[in-house]
Fold this protein.
Amino acid sequence: MTLGQGKDLDRSLIYDCFVTDDVWSSGVVAQACALELEMEMGAQAPRLDVVALVEYAAHRMKRKIIVSNTQLPRTYVTNALKIWNLLQHFDYVYLSAERSPQADPAEFRTVVAAKEAVTPAAILLIADDRLAGNMAWSRDWDGAAIPSVDWRRLVFTNSEGSRDWRSELILTPFAKRIASRAYCAQQSQVISIVAEHELGYVVFGPLLLGFMAWLFNVAALSHCSRLFFASRQGYFLRDAYNRLRLRLRQTHLPEGEYVYVSPRLVLAASQAVDFDASHILAEASARTTVAELLDTRIGFRGPPSVPLTTEVTLPEDSGYVEHILHTLEREIVRQAEPNHAGFMAYWRSLALDDNGVLGLVDLGGSAATQAALQKIVGRPLLGLHLAHDATGGDTQLAEGLAISCFRDNPGLSNGSQPMLGSTERKLLEALFTAPHGAVSHFSLNAMGYPMPVFLDSDVAQKNFPHLQTIFSGAEAYCEDALSSYGGALFPALAHGQSAGLAPLQMLARGQIGLDGTLVALLRGEDAVEWRDPTSSATSRGNLNNSKPEIRMSDSKPVRLKVLDDLPPVYHSYALFGVENTQIPGMYARNQLSKQPIILAYIQFAIAKCKKTISDQVSFAELFCADGFFAMSAIHLGATSSYGVDTDRDSQSGVLTAIADRLGLDVSLKKMDVADIDRLEQVDIVANVGGLYHVSNPNEILEKSYRLARRFLIVQTVVSIANNDADYFETPAPGWTWGSRYSRNSFERHLASKNWKVLDSHFNLLEGNTREEDLGSCYALIEKA
C-alpha cells in the first residue's frame, strides 16, 4: 500500500505499470507484489483495545460492520482481516471505492444506512481520533473516539493512558469537545476554559460518568434497602443518581436520599460512644493550631484554663496532638454527648428497617466518617466512596464494607485506578457541596422534630448558583455519552472508569487553564484544609515532647452585654455592638442571607428621601417580630420608626426592651398587617418577614404599597422546587397556613403591577433545608 495525494492506493495500480516494461516479466511482477504484501501484512497488527471492543460487541449480540473510504480493493481488506483472525467478527465490510472512486462521503453514509435498513442514528461509529471528528460521512452519526497513542501522549503529558477501550468510551465526549484544540496542539499548550458549563462538561463530566457507571455496577447496591447520600458532598450526586436511575429504568435500585451526615458531626458524636483520638486526627493534613483543628474537626471549644494556640503540622505532629487530646478526653466526651443525643434523634426520625442493608455515598477519604457513623448507630454500612485517599491512612472497619471507585493505585500510565491527589480532592470538595453549610448539630423545633443547625456560610455556599451551572455541564456530559451509546453504556464501562479522572488531573497539572472567575469558584474556605503547610511556623520547640508548653490564647473582642438577661430572639444585634441570645436553628444563617441586601435597600431609600440633613424620614417594618430592621432604620438615619406585628407567639414582646436599652425610639403597633390601611403613610415600608405567612399575599402587597409614601422594600420566601411562571400554592407546601410562589412566578407577579422596581435580588436562605423554603426574593420599589 502507498499514498497518493492523501489517498490509499492499491499496489496493483503501481505494479501494473511494470507489466508493460520488457525488463519485467508478469511472473516477476506478481512475485514482487506478493512479497511486498507479505512484508506489509507482517508489519501491521491490530490494536488490542479495538479487538477487545469488537469482542465485547459480539458478546452483546450486536451487528458489526466496517465502513471505510479506502481506495484499496476488498481482497486486500479481507486478507488483512483473515491474517489477524478478525474476519469472522464482522458481519459486513462497506468500501466506498466499490460504489465510486470519487464517492461523496455524505451519500455513502446514506447508502450504508439504507443497506442496513436503519436510520443513521441507529449506527454507532467507532473510529480513531481524527476520523471520529472529521470524516464527512460520520457527521450525523453518533461516534466514539478511540484515541491513538500519539494523541494521548500529546494531551496527557508523560502518560499514554489506559489502553482499555472502556476507558476510551468515557473520554469520547471530552475528546470530541476539545478535538480542534488538542489534535493539532503542541504538548506545552494549555486547553483554556472560560465558561462555567464548559468547565463542568470538560473536567468534571468524565469523572461523574465514570463514578456513576461504577456505582450502578456495584452488585451489592441492589441489596440495599436505603441509599443515603451524605451531606454536603452528596447533594449533587444524589440528584444525578436519581435522574440516571429513572433514565436507565433501574427502579429496582433504591432511590437516593439526602441525609445530614457530615464528617464533623458524626466524628464529634462518636466520641461520646467511644473516645478515639486517632479518629479525630484521621485524614488531617495541614498546618494549624490545636484549637483550630479541634474546632474544625469536632466543633470542640477548649476550656479557658487550657488555651490551645500551639501551632502544629499534621500528620508530622500527630503524637503531640494525641497527647493533648488524651488530656482533654473528659471535656471532649462531655461536649460530644449533646451532639450524640441530637443525631440519634435525627437517625430515629429516618424510620429505618432494622434488618435492611444501608448504603452510604460520599467523596470518601479513608472511610473515617463511615467508621464513626457505624460506631454511633451500632450497625454496619455499605460505604460507596468516590475515592480512597491513601494520604490519610487506612481506617480499618470492624464491620461493614467500604469500597471506592477511584482507589489509591498510582497513575493512569499503567492502566490501574488513579489516586486523587490533594489538589484534585480540594477541587472536588469545592464543587460537591450544597446550598447550606456543614451540619454543626441538631436542635428540636417547636414540634419536637430534630432539625439540623448549620455552620456559617463559606465560599462554596456563596458561589452555589455558579456551582450548579458547573455541575449541570457534568450532567450534560453523561447525557451526551448515554445518547450516543444507549442504556448498555454503564454495563460496558464496568471496571473501566479510571480514565474519568484524566481531565481533572490535567487541570491539577496545569494542562487545562481556567479563567480567573472560575478559579475563584473552585476555592474552598476550610482553614485546616487550605492553609499552606510550607508557610513559616511559630517557633514551638519539640512538639513530640511528653510535657509540651501550652501558650495563652489571644483575647477576644468584647461586646456590650446590655441584652444578656433578655430571652432569645430571632436576630443577632451585633450590628449595634452588643451581644444577645439568638434563637437556635435556622435564624442565624437566614439573617446572614437577608441582612446585607435589606439593609442596603433601607440605606438607599433613606438617602433618597433626604434633600437636607434635617429632613424627616419615617419607616415601618411589617411582620416585624423583634423589630430588628425597624431599629436598623433608625441606626441608618431614619428619624422615626415602628414595627407592626400581632405578637401572637410573643415574638415581639422584647422589641421595646431592646429599643430602650439601645437608646432607639422604636415602638410596636400590635395589630394584624391586614389592618394597616388604618395607618397613616410613612416614607419607607419594609415588608420583609411574613408575606409568605399569609394566604393572600397579593392583597397584603397592595396594602403595603399604599402605606408607603416613597419606597416599598419587599422580601419573601419562594420555592426552588418549582420555578413555573404560574406557580402559586396556598397553604404553603407542608404547612396548614401561608402561601408560596416560585422565583419566576413572584417576579412575574410583581412585574404585572407596573410598579417602578429599582432593583431586585434573589438568594438562598441557607438556614432552611426544604427546597420549598430555600429561595428568597427581594425588591426595592419607588413610588412615582
Remarks:
- DSSP finds 29 helices and 26 strands in the chain.
- The mean pLDDT is 78.
